[in-house]
Amino acid sequence: MSDRLLVLVRHGQSEWNLKNLFTGWKDPGLTEKGIAEAKAAGQKLKAEGLTFDVAFTSVLTRAQTTLDLMLAELGQTGLKTTRNLALNERDYGDLSGLNKDDARAKWGEEQVHIWRRSYDVPPPGGESLKDTLARTLPYYVQEILPCVLRGERTIVAAHGNSLRALIMVLEKLTPEQILKRELGTGAPVVYRLNADSTVASVVDLAG
Question: Which family does it belong to (predicted)?
Fold first, then answer.
């Protein structure tokens, strides 16, 4: 029986995570801690005896570097990899590059909280989580899921909000539940799927 394996990994800590800045589609690199988190994620996957047939990531450096570092730990540096902006982080629009405290000072604590934590209210010029789902989910259904169902062991290195979109579907979460779902940086989540694409098992390798 083929192993319908799907591993989702949020990128390691970025320079802007460290500085408490809204990042979105901006393209900072990983911090030293982020590099260490990515390598550790690869080591966790290796300890589980996992290898992969195909990889997907976003067009942003922090996700690509995380994937490269994980694959290096697994001895799979030449793995077939597809990059697509459908997996990019949520676009924070006018908030991108701003310190979160400065944004609160400008727009108010409550408004910034709504933009960050509501399901369907986008920041000015940006995307809501609902908007992010609208571009990420079709890509998952059309490109990623068929690989998994064919028995190709698949790893996806992406971002907190684009991965929430996938987790929402995989774990059948409501908009309210997905908003509360936290994803640690560099923490692999290992899914095995049934033939009908539902989840047979899930293991979070955080910590």
Answer: Belongs to the phosphoglycerate mutase family. BPG-dependent PGAM subfamily.
Residue 92 annotated as binding site: yes
Burial class (CB in 10 A: 0-12, 13-18, 19+), 127: buried
Taking the whole predicted model, whether its pTM rises above 0.85 is answered as: yes
Say which residue the tokens 């902006």 belong to.
85
Residue 166's identity, in one-letter code, is: L
- Give me the half-sphere count of Cα atoms (radius 13 Å) on the Cβ side of residue 27: 7
Catalytic: 89?
Answer: yes
Q: Which tokens sit at 154?
A: 């698949």
Catalytic member of 89, 127, 152, 159: 89
Q: Residues 132-170: pLDDT tens digits?
A: 999 999 999 999 999 999 999 999 999 999 999 899 999
Distance CA(132)–CA(96), nearest Å, equals: 15
Ordered by where they begin, the domains of the chain are 5-204 (3.40.50.1240)
